[in-house]
Amino acid sequence: MLKRIRNIGPGALIAAAFIGPGTVTACTLAGANFGYTLLWALLFATFATIILQEMSARLGLVTQQGLGEILATIFRQSKWKWPLFGLIIVALYLGNAAYEAGNLSGAALGLGALTNNAPYTYHISVGVISFLAAALFLLGSYKQIEKILLILVTLMALAFLATFFAVKADISSLLKGLFTPSIPKGSLLTVIALIGTTIVPYNLFLHASAVKAKWASIDDLQNARTDTSIAIGLGGLITILIASTAAASIFGSGLQISGVGDMAVQLEPLFGSFSKFMLGIGLFAAGLSSSITAPLATAYAMTEILGIKGGVTSKTFRFIVLSVISVGAILALTGIKPISIILAAQFANGLLLPVIAIFLLYAMNQKAILNRYVNKWLGNALGGLIIIITACLGARMIFKATGLM
Predict the structure, then answer these.
(1) HSE on the CB side for 306, CA within 13 Å?
(2) How far apart (Å, rounded) are the C-alpha atoms in residues 32 and 195?
(3) pLDDT in tens, 219-249
(4) Under a CB-based contact definition with an 8 Å cutoff, are residues 292 and 145 in contact?
(5) What is 314-369 written as a DSSP string?
(6) How far apart are CA 141 and CA 323, in angstroms?
(7) Torsion of CA 96, 102, 104, 110, to 10 degrees
(8) In this structure, are residues 226 and 7 in contact, taking their beta carbons and an 8 Å threshold?
(9) By C-alpha distance, which of 199, 291, 264 is closest to 32?
C-alpha cells in the first residue's frame, strides 16, 4: 500500500489541473442556485474522468508516446490530416487560453480577498500570477511541480471535508441529488460547466505525456491505474463537497453570488470571519496550480501533433506555454467580470470534450499500436456513452441558444 501511495503522481497533476478556481466557482454556483439537485453531474463527471484518463494513461505507458504523437501517427497518410489537426490545435489553444484566463482571474480574486480588494489589486495580481506561472515552468522540473500540486490538492480536500461536516448537510437530499439525474429550469449551462470543469479535454493530452515521463515499463500499468483512480477520485470528492457545502449554507438564502465574499459564506460555519481569507488562499493556490497545467498541456499537444522534438526544453514548447499564459492574462484584463470569465471557460471545455474524447477512443482501438492493451468492449461502451451524453448536453445548449429548442 505504501509503495502505491509513493507512486501517486501524474494523477495528482490531473486532479490539480481540474481543481482550479473554475471548479470552486462552478460548484459553489451549482449548490447556491440549485441546492443538491446537480450533484449527479459531478458524480457522473468524476467516473467519466477516471474512465477517460485511465485510457490516456494506458496509451502513454504502453506506447511511450503522448496522445498528440499517436494521432499524428494514425492520421499520417490521411487526406483529412491537416483539417483534423487544425481543428484540434485551434480548439485546444483557444479553449486553454480561455481556461487560463479563468485560472488567472480566480487566483487574482483570491489575492483580492486577502487584501480586502485594495485599488488595482486585481490587475496587479493577474500580472504577478502570470509571472509566477511562467517562472515555475521555466525554473521548476516536472517532479517539483508535481509535488507542489499534490500538496495543494490534499490541503483543499482536508479544508472542504472539515467544512462539509461543519455545515451539517442534508444527507437524504444529498443522496437524492447524487443518484437522481435532473436538469431544473435554467440549470443546463451549470450542468455543462460542472462536467467541463471536471472532465477537462486538455488533461487527456497532459496525462499521457506525464505518465510516459514517470514510468517506462508496462509492469507499472497497475500503478498508473491506481494513481489515476485515487487522485481523480479525491478530486471528484472535493467537487461534491464544495457543491454540498454551498447547498447547505447558501441555497434558499436569496444570496446572489458575485464575488469571493459571497462564495465564502459556505465556509463561515467552520472558519467564521476568517472564511473569506481561507477561500482567498484556496482560490489563489488552485488558480496558480491550474495556470501551470493548462499551458503545459497545450504545448504537449501542439508539439506532439506537429512532430516537434525536444520536449519541455525546446524553444517552440516554451513559446507555446508562455503565449498561452500571455493570452490568458490579456483576456483576464478585458474588464469582463472574473466570475463570468471562469464560468464561460468551463462551458467551453464542456463543448470541446466530445470532440477530443472521440479522438482518444479512436486511438484506444488501434491494435497495431496498443496490441493486447486496446480497449475491451466495456471500455468502448463506457467511452461511447460519455461522448453521447456530453454531446447531447452540448447540442441541447446550442439549440437553446440559437432558439431552435
Answers:
(1) 18
(2) 17
(3) 889 989 999 999 899 889 889 988 998 888 8
(4) yes
(5) SHHHHHHHHHHHHHHHHHHTSSS-HHHHHHHHHHHHHHHHHHHHHHHHHHTT-HHH
(6) 20
(7) -150
(8) yes
(9) 264
